[in-house]
Amino acid sequence: MLTTNGSNHQREGPSTWTPSEIRELRDRLGLSQREFAQELGLPTYEGSAPRVSDLENGRREASGPIRRLLDQLHEQGAE
Known about the structure:
disordered N terminus
């Protein structure tokens, strides 16, 4: 769960990401879905990022490697 305390974002619990947390992280980093996909090493197609959309809408769960990258992006964004 992402908690917001002013500008301080903290993550509690295991490395699991809900669709809303993924979207919140992307928004906080100021990235488009395409840019976010590139950060995560996910494919993009003709300017769109269907896998990011799937993650943000709950149609796909983040795999272990993607969860680790999300954790890293979260840590970088908190600095």
